[in-house]
Amino acid sequence: MALFDELKRRNVIRVAVLYLVASWGVLQVASLIFGVLGVPNSSMRLLLILLALGFPVAIGVSWFYAVTPSGLQREEDVERSPAEASAAGRRINLLIAVLLAAAIGVVLVDRYLIRPEAKLAEVAAATAGAAAVRPVPAPSASIAVLPFANLSDDPSNEYFSDGLTEELLNVLARVPELKVIARTSSFAYKGKQVKIADIARELNVAHVLEGSVRKAGNQVRITAKLVRGTDSSQVWSESYDRTTDDSFGVQDEISRRVVDALRPRLLAGVSAALEAGGTQVGAAYEAFLRGQFERNRGNAPEMLSAAVAAFDRAIELDPAFAKARAARAFTVANQAMNAYIPFEAGFADASAEARRAIELAPDIPDGHRVLARIKLYGEHDLDAARDLLTEAQHAGGDDATTLRLVMDVALREGRYNDAIEAARRVTLLDPIAPQAHTTLGVVLWYDRRFDEAQTAADRGLALAPDRPGAHYVTAVIALSRGNAARAVADCEQESIDWQKKSCLAIAYRRVGRPDDAKRELAELQAESGDGFAYQYAQIHAQWGETANAFRWLEVAEKVKDPGLILANGDPLLDPIRQDARFARLVERLGLAG
Predict the structure, then answer these.
(1) What predicted TM-score, i.e. pTM, was given to this entire model?
(2) Residue 467 vs residues 40, 301, 442: alpha-carbon distances, Å
(3) Residue 468 counted as domain residue
(4) Neighbours of 318 (CB within 10 A)
(5) Per-residue pLDDT tens for 174-225?
(6) Which residues pair with 219 in a beta bridge?
(7) For a tag site, which of 155, 189, 194, 338 has the least CB within 10 Å?
């Protein structure tokens, strides 16, 4: 008790509290300033260490010395009355209160003033950055196909107008030398009142195709109009009154008219190809459009199941409908990749369907492209995937979808320059699509160009802050840049549960929260079993637990986890890359360069 009284008399306890409050304030100010200047997280850790080392020094000084009107003097040389000691304590208390208020003020300014402004600046920078990569002027043979308006009395007929638009877009994308803006960017204008000239400028195209669909029963009226982007003048327009049995023929006719207007010398060469792979059965075409509509809504289990059911109906009505078979193969492969159905069975089903599509229509890219995707992710067969993509490109498939697969193959083979080039071409074909910029960020991340990767991924995030998967990408890139605090913040905002949990399991460990990290991993394993074996390996590799990382990679091999195709270049596996077992894994997977 005498020691405690002496600590109080010498104000040692008050000095300890004062030091802690002052240190907290210094850290808040430093966090704010370092964040603005882009100072790496290692500087914050160094500052924290220095402040921690200073704490015992402050305690020692307060025990041996006292602050007097004459300055700092040794405690045994000072004689103070109880009133003077009490006054000194009150002054320290006041100083504690002032510093505490100041630190809280910094926190509030950072959270409610600085951060919102920084987010606005980030969006503005992303928009400016997207504009900077567009070529000027727009190529004369370039077009954006806007979503055709659904003028039917029944709003549920939107699947028909959207599907017709997408098919027009896909057909035009197969025309050589014609630049066609991808679906994501074109559909970004759906339901918006934007001038044609503004759309053409934002997408960097010379022409825009717009139109409308009015459907009643099996009667359809389709109106299409081709417009010049520079002055919004009309190149041609036409209306078609047909039945749903002939709607595929109308799509083909509109495509020919566009080609005729933009590239007359190409018309003869593409005429036959425009007709391939389709159907003359109206109900089958309607079912196909409904399947496309459902699939484009997203990768949720119920959406993909509804799409497969629609494609099954289309194939039942017309077994020779190659496009429907390719679309079904793509969707079933998506189900397998998301672990909604067993990997092996799902990819086997998708592969058989894709092969049938190729048999029915070998001169269109659809079947080749889907089978390449299955070979890449389902069978880890890079050689076969590369050959199939070559076939798809020969069949006119040089659109954004094919380029993404070209990029994937180049990325898995370690040809990072080729992958980056393909990813940049996708951003030109899909300039306002968030995923295009996010994917470019991933490719740059694999090439260990972390700063460029963060810029590209942040651009995608700014274009669509709520897009599933976007926060995960910015988070793992931030981890590679040493910004663990940013990674935690981004992981916590991720809406895809498995990505959120696997990301937090790594990020929490980095910021000194190992119990929280273990909890995230345990929850993911309890929910998914071996379904995310590859992610468990990433986590243990980042934790420095090499044996556990390899144990889960072996499990991933057994269950044929699609994530293994990422292994050779995955930055998250860098901690175990030099282990001899890793080289053997890469060799077994056929990923060695």
Answers:
(1) 0.63
(2) 27, 17, 15
(3) no
(4) 20
(5) 776 778 888 888 888 888 888 888 899 888 888 898 988 888 777 888 888 8
(6) 216, 243
(7) 155
